Amino acid sequence: MQIISEIQRGGKKEGPSICITASLTDTQKREIQMLGQACQSWESVTQFPMLDSSENVDPTLPCFYIYYENTFPISFLSVFIPDGTYAEVTGFTLPGYRKKGHFAELLACAKEELKDQNLTFYIVSDGKSQDTQAMLSHKGMDLTYSEMMMATSLEELAQMDVPAPSAELVGYEVDDEAEQEELFSLEQEEDEYVLYQGEEGVAWCKLAFFPGTAYLYGFEVEESLRRHGYGRYFLKQLAQSLLDWQADPESEVKLPPQAGEVHTMLLQVGTRNVAACGLYDSCGFVVTEKLDYYLA
Prior knowledge:
Helix content is 26%, strand content 33%. By secondary structure, it is an alpha+beta fold. The protein folds into two domains: 2-141, Gcn5-related N-acetyltransferase (GNAT) (Aminopeptidase, 3-Layer(aba) Sandwich), CATH 3.40.630.30; 150-291, Aminopeptidase (3-Layer(aba) Sandwich), CATH 3.40.630.30. The longest helix has 18 residues, at 230-247.
């Protein structure tokens, strides 16, 4: 088996080979999209692997693995590494080439390439591929936990009627509701978005951007302020800020080019996290799919 670590394959070689890279060329992206479309026409799966490493905690890590038969890609594996402790593995194999160990070989390559990162690997499945479920069962991979994908529009989120949480909770005294509202500000600090109440940071999150979509993760409210409306208020302010930043060409906050025009907010939440599920449901998020995580 030839292992080709460069982004470019150079002169296309005959026989099977595996390409390992931290970023995909436009040609590779088109090939993988065609491969994915062939798989989706075979089974009604909704998942599509990450094709841009910019949202990984370290974009230089080798996170894309392509199995070529002669010059044709027949299997693809993508590794999303959000915080440096675990890796979410997604991918697919052309239907006519399944049950031959190609995806397992890509997974073994990924584990070997990333062994110094000490990551816990999870294979992510939407449960809609019978071949994937058979592979997971055959390999004895255990279901560790499940999450729901939830989505809503920025416009609906920004229009929620949510009062500003009381200033007294952080030691401020204000005369009226307008003054209470003015205490709040939303700041972008490196890769994090922080809600301030006066000088106090009260809530945090991170955003990853995909075409038309802001993916929310790392959402947290200061523990002592939970159940006082900060979560709903933060989500409303975040949505409004995203709309304002896009509408204002002079804005200091610029969304990444791959985002395009963002209208949707997407997130994942564990099915056992009842409080978080209730919060997102109350803010208009609806379940779009369920994802299962198997320890690889």
